[in-house]
Specification:
The complex is a heterodimer of chains A (316) and B (282). Chain A has 316 residues and is of the alpha/beta class. Helices cover 28% and strands 24% of the residues of chain A. Chain A has 2 domains: 234 residues, P-loop containing nucleotide triphosphate hydrolases (Rossmann fold, 3-Layer(aba) Sandwich), CATH 3.40.50.300; 68 residues, no CATH class. Chain A is globular. By secondary structure, chain B is mainly α. Helix content of chain B is 71%, strand content 0%. Classes of the chains: A alpha/beta (316), B mainly alpha (282).
Chain lengths: 316, 282
């Protein structure tokens, strides 16, 4: 195991209303080197919070995230400040993730200069090399972000992350802001890069077809918890948790994502993370809920060697 | 590669911006003439024989009741006004921008203290606060500058803090933190460039306010003291004479007006040139 997320809890206190947003309610996940873990779930389920915790933008309220025995984050101190973290992040919005006043070349060069990653004379060729790696030509160096398309910007973001020579790349909805026509290009680029540099990915998305395309293992999240975990074919072709089933059934043509014929549909909205239902957080919308579901929080239990489900009705 | 147009190119497209710059440059040149002692007469020299003469070949702007040359006194007053304006706005920019950027970026209690303190200063009318501070500091031009700087620092705090607050939430700042950049690097290379444009505009506009405040203080008897010349003081002294010696009031007033209009036009021109959305042609 290389990345171990051990029972991580993240709460955001809201001062005005004296309430607490429970973004993550005890998440445990592992990713092995070279693997891709896909995380799916509706907006507000804590996917992006998890990404921010792993790269050290925030600290967990409780629990630990470790990378190869080094504790990435513990308590309130971010040990990666002023140091290069082995985990880098690619943001969803390619428009706000690049400094509008910085040329593309400068943007990538800054990573190398700030951390002395190359000798002075090698820097320029390294920038060119990184641009080539993401499929961009050298003359893009002098462009400003506003002169590039969304897909090109996202390639620059990826090149910038690669400049830091990460081992783990966190992709927070990297293609959801892009035109459908360029999504496939960027996804293929990500697949190639993983092979070329032996990268480990954490791929966050609400788009199951994208997750299927790239993931080895898929975790389905609902209100800050993992409700189902397994290899991509298990989770998508043979979903067990009623939420996973509903998520797949919600795709208009879900035969492209999974093989099970599903007609489940969900009612109601996701409950607010400031006021999570007691027991199983999903029971208020669950088609197979029994009265007991509101009393006990179901644990993630294995039903096969690699597939686990957090549902007392399924595991029973 | 085609050379890109800088903000200077955009500035030079605006007629009012050029007019403003010319007016300000004329006033700066006159101040320099005075500073190097090249004025036609000594601004303090009294010639009772020539008292209260109208504008003529010897005394271009006429003389006051002591026979002092109003042109020489006006350009000397302009020199003093501009010095006070530059020093006070310089100090206000330095402290205001530092406090605003640091407060906005660090947030929490530091920001709270900065904002509350500037609210307190904002609560006083500018001239009253400047009066009080000059009263307790003294009357030298440096004291006057410090007083005006204190009054205008909160404006620079606000001008600098606003863009910092909006920029620091952008993904590229988060990405800079994930990349392990140091805080000075993030502030200097990713946040400050966004603060530059509004601050430059504010500097130009504040210079004109500072000149008005300095004139106001001198008019009220604080700030520059007789016999030194100051535009505000000259206006104050000329009040009694205005009925029969219009030139003693008119010329210092015109100088104040010209430099204030000039600086305001420069400020407007800079605002248009530095804001990509306002650039009419691109």
């Amino acid at each position: 195991m290389t990345l171990v997320i051990d029972n991580v809890i993240k709460k955001y206190p809201i001062r005005q209303s004296k309430s607490v947003v429970n973004a993550l309610n005890g998440i445990s996940l592992n990713i092995s080197k070279g693997q891709t873990l896909g995380i799916v779930g509706e907006s507000g389920c804590g996917k992006s919070t998890l990404a921010r915790l792993i790269v050290g933008l925030e600290s967990p309220t409780q629990g630990a995230i470790t990378w190869r025995d080094n504790v990435l984050l513990r308590g309130s101190k971010n040990q990666w400040r002023n140091h290069l973290s082995p985990a880098q992040l690619v943001f969803q919005d390619p428009y706000s993730s690049l400094n509008p006043r910085q040329r593309i070349g400068e943007c990538i060069k800054e990573v190398i200069v700030a951390h002395n990653l190359r000798q002075k004379e090698e820097i320029d060729s390294r920038v060119t090399e990184l641009l080539k790696v993401v499929g961009m030509s050298e003359d893009m160096k002098n462009r400003y972000p506003h002169q590039l398309s969304g897909g090109q910007r996202q390639r620059v973001s990826i090149a910038r992350a690669l400049a830091a020579e990460p081992e783990l790349l966190i992709l927070d909805e990297p293609v959801s802001a892009l035109d459908v026509s360029v999504r496939a290009d960027v996804m293929n680029l990500l697949v190639d890069l993983r092979k070329e540099f032996g990268l480990t990915y954490l791929f966050i998305s609400h788009d199951l077809s994208m997750v299927r395309h790239i993931s080895d293992v898929i975790a389905v999240m609902y209100l800050g918890r993992v409700v189902e975990l397994g290899t991509w074919d298990e989770v998508l072709d043979n979903p067990q948790h009623p939420y996973t089933k509903a998520l797949i059934a919600a795709i208009p043509d879900h035969s492209q994502v999974g093989q099970m014929d599903l007609t489940v549909s969900l009612e109601g909205e996701v409950p607010s993370p400031t006021n999570i239902p007691l027991g199983c957080a999903f029971h208020v919308r669950c088609p197979i809920a029994v009265p007991n579901c509101s009393k006990m929080i179901p644990q993630l239990l294995p039903i096969k060697s690699s597939q686990s489900v957090a549902c007392s009705e399924v595991v029973k | 590669m085609k050379r890109e147009r800088t903000w200077i190119n955009y500035y030079l497209q605006s007629t009012s911006g050029i007019v403003g710059a010319v007016l300000v440059l004329i006033m700066i040149t006159l101040s320099l003439i005075s500073a190097f002692g090249l004025a036609p007469h000594d601004p303090l020299e009294q010639n009772p024989m020539d008292a209260l003469q109208g504008p003529n070949g010897t005394y271009w702007f006429g003389t006051d009741q002591f026979g002092r040359d109003i042109f020489s006194r006006s350009i000397d007053g302009m020199r003093r006004s501009l010095s006070v304006a530059l020093l006070s706005v310089g100090l206000a920019t330095l402290f205001g921008v530092t406090l605003g950027v640091v407060g906005g970026y660090l947030g929490r209690w530091i920001d709270n203290i900065v904002v509350r303190a500037s609210d307190v200063i904002f609560a006083f009318p500018a001239i009253l606060l400047a009066l009080a501070i000059v009263n307790s500091l003294g009357n030298s031009w440096i004291d006057t500058s410090i007083a005006i700087a204190i009054v205008y620092t909160p404006i620079f705090i606000r001008v600098a803090r606003g863009p910092v607050l909006s920029v620091k939430e952008m993904d590229y700042i988060k990405s800079a933190r994930v990349l392990g950049y140091s805080s000075p690097r993030i502030l200097g290379r990713h946040i400050l460039p966004n603060v530059f444009a509004p601050v430059v505009v504010q500097v130009a506009l504040s210079l004109s306010w500072a000149i008005l405040t300095e004139s106001g203080l001198s008019f009220l008897g604080l700030g520059t003291q007789p016999p030194d010349a100051s535009l505000g003081l000259m206006v104050s002294e000329a009040q009694a004479l205005a009925a029969f010696a219009w030139w003693s009031l008119a010329f210092p007033s015109i100088f104040i007006t010209i430099v204030v209009i000039g600086l305001n036009l420069v400020g407007d021109g800079l605002r248009d040139a530095l804001d990509p959305a306002r650039r009419s042609t691109s």
